[in-house]
Design goal:
The chain has 435 residues and is of the alpha/beta class. It contains 15 helices and 17 strands. Helix 7 runs parallel beside helix 8.
Length: 435
């Protein structure tokens, strides 16, 4: 590979400023550039994963199971936590700088005068790299919505909608029906659509019916349930069961800890089975191994600091906060819980705090002024929470300072929960790696 003329950080700074908007939904521009690039199919099979919450974990489960079966797999996810390279994985490894730079150079030549957003550049780079890797399976995580998201450039063999709840209302609509319609746009005619909601919006079901997509609904077409230890084949280890008509599997519990991860794992299994004729066999032992090994940074990621349990999670909307609350109930700390909370300006912060308020003893708020236009100061966050359980929280300019203060206040046996956005989690993980 020829020497790089511009480094990856140079490219990232460039593509962040080249378009006047950070979000400019629509497929016309990216489709035009993809045609100029000569992009065809990124893999033999493609699974696209959309939804309000659980996308990243579901992608990780699919990727882990397919790789355990010996498939060559590419995964495109967003946003990243510590390095942009995390967004593009091939055979379990993050893309290297040289490969990403080569992809960006090709895109820059092909785009001509066509403007692309940061996410559109990244999506094209992932597809460009995947096509050259000769993959068995490409897994694409939707960035925002679905119908007009850049990942919808590719026709998936299976579409997945993990959940539909309120988030990004400025772009997707004010209620679940409107948001569901946008997310259902990743479905394709006569192809499977896997649904992880017990009660999906009628807009999702109606769209699937109109285009002839076959729906695989959780709690309807496939099921999951924990197995009481007394009934498990291996009584020493907790297990769970996945089943559909005529088929069932008893599986190890995921390494990913939250109760909601069983649902995400069940959806991931359904997505792989919905492929019909996969590029390679998917034996039961690969499913079990993949479920047990799947990991995702920033999802209940735990650290011990002098007996204090530090937990970092990317939960950033009320539905995710409710899942976080369920985990706190299932795995209570022996002491008190201290929260470090920082969120983007367009989030329902009061709804998030309300979901967790009964379980939090002390609140520490932090600003995200370095998170771009959607960031904000701690004073602005505190003002929005003036009528909430976090009204009397301590205030800190940055997440790292809030985390330091929480750890100073905490005692052995306590828990410090850091959450609110990917920016919050990234800052915390970086600080924890250095301290």
């Amino acid at each position: 590979m020829r020497p790089m003329t511009r480094t990856l950080p140079d490219w990232l700074a460039y593509i962040e400023r080249i378009h006047p908007k950070s979000i400019d939904m629509g497929l016309d521009r990216i489709r035009e550039v993809a045609q100029r690039l000569g992009l065809k199919r990124p893999a033999k099979k493609v699974i696209t994963v959309g939804g309000t919450n659980g996308k990243g974990s579901t992608v990780a489960f699919i990727e882990s199971m397919a790789r355990a079966a010996g498939w060559k797999v590419g995964a495109y996810t967003s946003p990243h936590l510590l390095a942009y390279n995390e967004r593009v994985r091939i055979d379990g490894a993050d893309a290297d700088d040289a490969g990403l730079v080569e992809a960006f150079e090709a895109i820059e030549v092909a785009r001509g005068e066509t403007q692309l957003t940061y996410f559109e550049y990244g999506t094209l780079a992932a597809l460009w790299l995947f096509e050259r890797a000769r993959l068995d399976l490409a897994i694409l995580e939707v960035g925002l919505g679905g119908r007009l998201d850049a990942t919808n450039l590719v026709d998936p063999d299976v579409a997945v909608i993990t959940t539909v709840d309120l988030d990004h209302q400025d772009y997707l609509g004010e209620d679940r029906e409107a948001i569901g319609f946008e997310k259902a746009g990743i479905a394709r005619a006569w192809k499977p659509l896997v649904l992880g909601d017990d009660d999906p919006p009628s807009s999702v079901l109606g769209h699937a019916y109109r285009i002839g997509a076959s729906t695989w609904r959780i709690a309807n077409d496939f099921f999951f349930e924990p197995i009481p230890q007394s009934a498990a084949k291996d009584e020493g280890q907790p297990r769970w069961r996945w089943r559909e008509v005529g088929h069932r599997m008893e599986l190890p519990m995921p390494r990913l800890a939250a109760p909601v991860q069983l649902r995400n794992a069940a959806v991931a299994i359904a997505a792989l089975r919905a492929l019909g004729r996969p590029p390679r066999p998917l034996p039961r032992n690969a499913i079990a191994e993949g479920i047990a090994r799947a990991e995702v940074r920033g999802r209940l990621q735990r650290f011990d600091r002098d007996g204090v349990d530090v937990v970092v999670d990317v939960a950033h909307n009320p539905q995710a906060a409710r899942s976080l609350s369920a985990w706190l109930s299932a795995a209570p700390a022996s002491g008190t819980v201290h929260a470090v909370f920082a969120a983007l300006a367009d989030k329902d912060v009061a709804g998030v705090v309300e979901s967790l308020a009964p379980q939090i003893a002390h609140w520490h708020l932090a600003g995200l002024a370095d998170a771009g236009p959607r960031g904000g100061t701690v004073e602005a966050l505190a003002q929005r929470l003036a009528a909430s359980a976090a009204a009397n929280a301590s205030r800190h300019e940055r997440v790292d300072r809030a985390l330091e203060a929480a750890l100073q206040q905490a005692r052995s046996g306590d828990r410090v929960l850091v959450f609110g956005s990917f920016h919050t989690a990234a800052t915390a993980l970086d600080w924890l790696a250095r301290h």
